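Hello,

Our lab assistant flagged a job as stuck in the queue for most of the afternoon. It eventually completed. Since we weren't sure the result was trustworthy after the delay, we are filing this so someone can double-check. Below is the sequence as submitted and the structure that was eventually returned. Let us know if re-running is recommended.
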Amino acid sequence: MGSTAEKFIADSEEKAFDQDHRRIINFNMGRYHASAAKGIDRLTNLETAKRKAHVIKWRVMENLDKFLPEFEANFQRRGGKVIWANDVEEAQQEILSIIHRAGARRVVKSKTMATEEIHLNEFLEQNNIESLETDLGEYIVQLLGQKPYHIVTPAMHLSKEDIARLFNQKFGTPIDATPEQLTQKARELLRDKYLQADVGITGANFLIADTGSIAMSENEGNARLCTTFPKIHIAIVGIEKLIPSITDLDLFWPLLSTHGTGQNLTVYNTILSGPRQMDEADGPEEMYVILLDNGRTNLLAKKDQRQGLYCIRCGACLNACPIYQNVGGYTYNTTYSGPIGSVITPHMKGMEEFKHLSYASTLCGRCTEVCPVKIDLHKMLLINRRDAVKEDLSTPKEKWGWAAWKKAMLSRKLTDFFGGKMKNFILKMFFKKAWGKFREMPVVAEKSFAQRWAEEQNRKED
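-- returned structure --
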């Protein structure tokens, strides 16, 4: 078992029995489930909408080589610039090059998982460039020196008391400040930063091929400020975010918002098609879209698993997953956690190091059930497990264990020979550590069903 897998098991065991963590997550998840249920109930013909979204994303992934150039051509037609980045290093260097050419020193960012994927804040800091998160949840975790806990709600693991203590330590606000007061303080701190920033960096929820636009959804308005005040706007977007037409937004925007937060639509929905035009009052002088691969084409090449690229990052599968609810977001040690992270990470960052995530599942199918684009998530997890075995990534201990189990299960004599006492000894000897120090080992009956059945039949004959 690799070091990443060992760390996952150790961290999971600790978090699963952290009562305070469980209390906060159960409370925040409870609020989400109540809100999402109301929002999703307002959608008519939900299954039809999900099937339609699935087919659209299928068509995009099967024709990505056509839709990406279409987006590029239409975006450049209005003065925008497109940069293709194969990996983290290329994306980082392209962004740094833009910032250096402009002589910029300050960057404001809206919430984007793609920048987390390329570790942008740390990279810019190493190059003496101030990079500030402006989404409230992202701002809070940045103050704590942490990564986002969740795809949609980065500070889900924190209570309002935790945040009040943080603001008290950092800014001297009252220790009993209300969420409204804390939000107001953050607004005061961030407002001048937009005016001072040289560059605004965002992600995008969707790339629109036929208009050459990016579409962003948010609830705070900070993304609009990041794209309006700075002279340069850089959008970093995974190549899978494409949709064919602007008319598809009437399907994808409601699916994203209802499954992400329970809203009919998020408060702010913005479509940007390039830098400020001659007849426009607002907007940046330069706009760049960085199309990020970073392992996505590896997943695209997997016919059985490319469904993972249909994801619209609503976070519904995380909220539905019993594993995620118990072990939390940080234990995955990846940008994308939960079921979708377990599906895509082994292909984006290496099967050998991250194959263990595909086993972090009960295979209950709840993630598949709630997915708004009908990704067959629990099937993808099984296929990842299959591929890990095919690639001969199983440890010797695994191979020997399964070989012994198979031999015993195919032989009734061996199964009965290793009776209850022997099986209980084997469990305690070899599986105690893996089972966890907080859990009791299961006790196997001393006699097998076949032995008991034979004894029962003999007793009846007597």
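-- support follow-up --
The delay was a queue issue, not a problem with the job. The result is valid. The two ends are 53 Å apart (CA to CA). The beta strands are 81-85, 106-109, 130-133, 199-202, 206-208, 213-218, 232-238, 242-243, 268-272, 286-292.
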